[in-house]
TrEMBL record:
It comes from the Bacteria. This is Cytochrome c oxidase accessory protein CcoG. The chain crosses the membrane at residues 37-55, 89-106, 164-181, 193-213, 370-388. Coiled coil: none annotated. Keywords: 4Fe-4S, Electron transport, Iron, Iron-sulfur, Membrane, Metal-binding, Transmembrane, Transmembrane helix, Transport. Pfam families: Fer4_18, Fer4_5, FixG_C. PANTHER family: FERREDOXIN-TYPE PROTEIN NAPH.
Length: 511
């Protein structure tokens, strides 16, 4: 049966546009514990992003000394003491899985904390707002400036703001490419015009996107472009802490509380001052309930706590609360008609009674979050174990296919192999190649003269794959089968690392 979107039909009948024009938001500077936490996170995350490529890490003369480097040309990823090769990409996959589980854990515990505190979009918008406030003033001044006709002062402010935004955007793009090459050298090349074209193109693209997304589009990115707000609903449950307006104590709200109280009417704690709306970077009113736009930045909590302090009321009218706690409080505050009755949860002195007014942080510890923590830790420990025990010497062998074997003039049978020795250490090594399980075999390497018959020493360059052509010859009298299994073994003669490869000696119809 065909279904209709009734609201869409009504909208069409009312001739309302499907997309509302953006109303510019002028967030006021907030003060409080969550704002302080956000400042700290902003400084730490930006510091990590901009400074990491400049940290040096000595790996010896055969490897780059940049602590974190994605070396696309040599296909290596360096992270301090860890070097990841392309075939070890499962480490990156493991880290991505851990990041995903971590996101589930955080969201199911404290809602969209990732969005509100650490998402790059949030961090850079915060940084751009710092610049905007420094040049154009706080909320009211910016609103007045927007409405004012263009003047020399307004033009200077606008040009200054956008110039600094562009500089921040360019340094953001610049910092990104430093992760892919030696940062000090690339910086010199960039400013002297000697860097590769792709470097300038990457900086240009990232400058444009940072400036546009962080400076111009801001909250629209979160609301319209990011899929996370749509996904997060599936991760929340009745025990998740989310930023909540506690209307069970705030309603009925009024700007004229004194007058209403004098008239014998009860009011809630909300004085309808709009301080929570003024600081919201998403331009929403948390008193309208949970909304897709809310990034859980908690700045409205700071704003309202400030108002409550000034009024001498308990903080937490807006707070981190679980749906369960909210419902329990609400059940106590409403009367038989479902209306909020402030007197039901207050004593004669107006103090809140019999309600949970503080954030129940213990709700974070529950079965679901424990499962996430265990899964996260299990993957982390497994990866750490593999990382600490991984071999840095790898052996691979290909048997010649055509011909499988040849009979030499002296009657002996010869097989050819291509031996590949991978030295994954950033230093030269001396590797001994030996044969096990094939007594009487003569090992011949054409490139090496006078090698012993059953073992050979091969130099392996740092971080390199060495390919060696190897021949084995056998007296057919010593062979009992057409295919004789044996093993190639490589060992670092100065260390304990070794690797082996199971191979076969082919004697064909001669056996
Ligand atoms: S409603 Fe509050 S928590 Fe949500 S985005 Fe606005 S200020 Fe942040
Ligand atoms: S800041 Fe607090 S008191 Fe003011 S409008 Fe918001 S919820 Fe009400």
């Amino acid at each position: 049966m065909e279904s209709f979107d009734v609201e869409a039909v009504n909208r069409r009948d009312r001739q309302e546009p499907l997309y509302a024009a953006r109303k510019k938001i002028h967030p006021k500077r907030a003060e409080g514990r969550f704002r302080s936490l956000k400042w700290v996170i902003m400084v730490v995350t930006l510091g990590i992003y901009y400074l990491t490529p400049w940290i040096r890490w000595d790996r010896g003369e055969f490897a780059p000394d940049q602590a974190v480097l994605i070396d696309l040309y040599h296909r290596r990823f360096y992270f301090f003491f860890i070097e990841i090769w392309p075939q070890e990409f499962y480490y990156v996959a493991g880290l991505l899985i851990m990041a995903g589980i971590g996101l589930f854990l955080v969201t199911s515990s404290v809602g969209r904390a990732w969005c509100g505190y650490t998402c790059p979009q949030t961090v850079w918008v915060d940084l751009f707002l710092v610049v905007e406030r420094a040049i154009e003033g706080d909320r009211n001044k910016r609103i007045r400036l927007d409405k004012a006709p263009m003047s020399a002062e307004k033009a200077v402010k606008r040009v200054s703001k956008h110039t600094i935004w562009l500089l921040i955007a360019a340094s953001t793009g610049g910092a990104w490419i430093f992760y892919f090459a030696d940062a000090p050298k690339l910086a010199v090349d960039l400013f002297t015009g000697n860097a590769a074209g792709v470097a300038y193109a990457t900086v240009a693209v990232l400058t444009f996107t940072t400036y546009t997304l962080g400076g111009l589009m801001r909250e629209q990115v979160c609301t319209y472009m990011c899929p996370w707000p749509r996904i997060q609903g599936a991760m929340l449950d009745e025990h998740s802490l989310t930023v909540t307006y506690n209307d069970w104590r705030g309603e009925p709200r009024s700007r004229h509380q004194k007058k209403l109280e004098a008239a014998g009417k009860s009011t809630g704690d909300c004085i309808d001052c709009n301080a929570c709306v003024a600081v919201c970077p998403m331009g929403i009113d948390i008193r309208d309930g949970q909304q897709l736009e809310c990034i859980t930045c908690a700045l409205c909590i700071d704003a309202c706590d400030g108002v409550m302090s000034k009024l001498g009321l308990e903080k937490g009218l807006i707070s981190y609360a679980t749906l369960n706690d909210y419902n329990a409080n609400m059940a106590k505050a409403v009367n038989a008609n479902g209306e909020i009755e402030p007197d039901r949860i207050r004593n004669s002195a107006g103090k809140l009674i019999d309600t949970l007014t503080h954030t129940n942080w213990r709700s974070i510890i529950r079965v679901r979050t424990m499962i996430y923590i265990c899964a996260w830790a299990a993957i982390g420990f497994a990866m750490l174990g593999v990382l600490l025990t991984r071999e840095r010497l790898d052996l691979n062998v290909l048997h010649d296919r055509n011909p499988l074997f040849v009979t030499l003039s002296d009657g002996s049978i010869r097989n050819g192999y291509t031996v590949k020795i991978l030295n994954m250490m950033p230093e030269p090594r001396l590797i001994q190649l030996t044969i096990e399980g094939l007594p009487g075999a003569r090992l011949i390497i054409p490139d090496i003269k006078d090698n012993p018959e059953d073992a050979v020493l091969l130099p392996a360059e740092p971080d390199q794959l060495e390919t060696v052509k190897v021949f084995l010859s056998m007296d057919p009298k010593t062979l009992t089968e057409q295919k004789t299994p044996f093993r190639f073994v490589v060992q670092d003669i100065n260390g304990s690392e070794r690797d082996s490869y199971d191979a076969v000696f082919e004697a064909g119809e001669s056996k």
